[in-house]
Amino acid sequence: MYAVLIDAPEAEAARATAFWSAALGVTAEPFAPQPQFTTLHEALPGLVTAVQAVDDAPRIHLDFETDDVEAETARLLALCAERISQWQECQVLRVPGGHVVCVLPVETDPETFRAQANVWP
Q1: pLDDT score of 79 more than 90
Q2: Residue 121 pLDDT greater than 80, yes or no
Q3: DSSP per-residue codes, 6-38
Q4: Which of 73, 89, 32, 30 is nearest to 40 (CA)?
Q5: Is 104:90 a contact under the CB 8 Å cutoff?
Q6: Which of 13, 49, 68, 104 could make a disulfide contact with 8, Cβ separation 3.0–4.6 Å?
Q7: Structure pTM?
C-alpha cells in the first residue's frame, strides 16, 4: 500500500485539512503538481497521507502502487473488486464492502519500491 487519502468535498477540503492536521498533530502542505491534494506530513509513518478535494461524497480510500497496473488491477478484480473509473494512469476500483481503492504506477523511488514491494506468484 502506498497512501491513505481522506476525500473531502471540494467546498469542505480546507476545513477538513485544518481538522486532520490539528487532530493528528502534523503539518499540512499543498501538493503543487496536483492542487486537489494536501499532504499531511508523517501522519502515518511509511505511507503518504493526504486530504483530497473531490466532487463526491466524503470517504477514505487507499492507494496501491505497482510496477504493473494492469496485472495488479486484474488480481484485485479476480478478488471480486469492480472497476469504476480511471483517473490519469490510475485504475479506480470498488472492493467488497463498498470501499474505493486506486491502483497506480510506482510513485516511490524505485530502490525503496523494490525493497518493500509484495511479489505475488
Answers
A1: yes
A2: no
A3: EEEEGGGHHHHHHHHHHHHT--EEE-TTSTTEE
A4: 30
A5: yes
A6: 13
A7: 0.84
